[in-house]
Amino acid sequence: MRIILTPKHPQWSKFVWRLKSELHCCSCKVDGEMGIARSILESMDGMDVEGTISFFRQMGANCNAEICELIDEYSFFVRQEKEIDNYMLCGC
Predict the structure, then answer these.
(1) Greater model confidence, 90 or 47
(2) What DSSP assignment string belongs to the chain?
(3) Beta bridge partners of 3
(4) pLDDT 10s digits, 16-69
(5) Is residue 4 part of a domain?
(6) In terms of residue numbers, what domain contains 37?
(7) 29: in domain
(8) N or C: which end of the chain has fewer CB within 10 A?
(9) Is there a domain that residue 66 lies in?
(10) Does some domain include residue 33?
(11) What is the reported pTM?
(12) Overall number of domains in the chain
């Protein structure tokens, strides 16, 4: 069974690290290029490459750089949620 890679998947951080590492020297083309992301996904066992690319497109990403922007936005919201949870737990 092929798996669509989402932020909740255990290999998400591996994908993020590789994408950001490889993207630092590449540019985002306007034509919707996701070659770097596709290549990384293809190297990860069990990933549904087309399903994951479709997931990124549904989330608004049309190229490698926009996937990174989504990753950064997701990380920001996760941090915010944790801060709110910690605030609520401390009884402040």
Answers:
(1) 47
(2) --B---TTSTTHHHHHHHHHHHHTT----TTT--HHHHHHHHHSTTB-HHHHHHHHHHTT--SHHHHHHHHHHHHHHHHHHHHHHHHHHHT-
(3) 47
(4) 889 888 876 555 554 568 889 999 999 999 999 999 999 999 988 889 888 888
(5) no
(6) 12-90
(7) yes
(8) N
(9) yes
(10) yes
(11) 0.71
(12) 1
